[in-house]
Design brief:
The chain is mainly α. Helices cover 82% and strands 0% of the residues.
Length: 190
């Protein structure tokens, strides 16, 4: 073979190794990107779950209505921490309105049940026992669902200004069911 032909083959080999290296770099970038997304999702879910645990804990307060105020405070705190995590300006007033709209979307039966669980605490002896059996799971699920809806919204580039509760009611109900399972598991492991 002539030297020019050997040069042609060596150029092809160089091009193939460069192409292979570029493909490896693209694949590596995709893996790093997926790991970053996964890590970011994991960190956001840690915020959601941590506040779910707190709301489950404060639901055990033996004082009717004070427990609901404390639960709402942890729900607001969860959203505030998520907004800080996603670098989105926080609006306390807007968040409270959004939480009210999301929770009311669960229906009057749920809201009535939550209020009755809180007020049943005022019954001596039996009240706290009945409330302790069901309220932590329900409030944990609600806090979880609120957090998941906001993680989804912020991940898609949303802000508080373009958040529409009516557009996410379906997701909220789905995440509430998911939250019931998460809260039940948390209750069993505690």
């Amino acid at each position: 073979m002539s030297k020019s032909r050997l040069k042609d083959f060596s150029n092809i080999a160089d091009d193939a190794s460069t192409s292979s290296t570029q493909e490896e770099m693209v694949i590596e970038a995709e893996v790093v990107s997926k790991e970053t997304i996964s890590t970011k999702d994991d960190r956001a879910m840690k915020i959601v779950k941590r506040n779910m645990y707190w709301s489950m804990g404060v639901s055990l307060l033996p004082f009717p209505l004070i427990d609901l105020v404390a639960i709402t405070a942890f729900q607001v705190r969860s959203i505030q921490q998520l907004s800080d995590f996603y670098d989105i300006p926080f609006s306390d007033h807007r968040v409270k309105n959004i939480i009210g709209a999301l929770v009311s979307g669960l229906g009057s039966a749920y809201l009535g049940g939550l209020l009755s669980r809180s007020f049943i605490k005022s019954l001596p002896f039996v009240g706290n026992a009945v409330s302790m059996a069901s309220m932590p799971i329900a409030t944990g699920a609600m806090t979880y669902a609120i957090g998941k809806v906001f993680v989804q919204h912020f991940e898609s580039g949303g802000t508080f200004l373009n958040f529409e509760p009516k557009d996410v009611h379906h997701y909220f109900k789905h995440y509430y069911q998911e939250g019931l399972q998460e809260a039940a598991q948390a209750g069993q492991s505690a």
